[in-house]
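Kindly go through one protein, given below as sequence and tokens. The question is how this chain folds according to its tokens.

***
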Amino acid sequence: MFHRALNLAKIPVLIALLVTPVRFFLELAGLPETVIFLIGLLWLTLALAVYWGIKLPDEAHPYLLLLLSLTIFAPLSRFPVFVLWWITKTWELGTHYDIFDNWSQALIGQLFYGSLVQIIPGSLLGFLTLAIKRRRKTVTA
């Protein structure tokens, strides 16, 4: 099951590795926060949760697989955020990534709490999507 979850998370992690620097450079370019807010890991996570909820109902343990996939995806997708915190802090760029004072705060804030901010709503939305998809399947069968 872990191998399957890892395969599900692989491409989304690569997408996240691109999304975060794009958001960072758009912020440096001076785009409004409302535009930049639309490009982020939370939206990507929610879209993935719905996608996986639609794709996984026939799996043996779809809820566990979805949760495990999100648990793999979230911290890996946060690594660029942590790196961009360090860049922002080191060169005093003043981006929204500069919200922590030191390494330990940034590690805990970005990798742990940031992951929870992705996993919890992603799980809820994914579970709801799975439940609806599975219910529809049993009603039509």
User: Anything to note?
Assistant: DSSP finds five helices and no strands in the chain. The helical segments are 2-28, 33-37, 41-55, 62-90, 103-140. The chain has one domain: 2-140. The two ends are 27 Å apart (CA to CA).
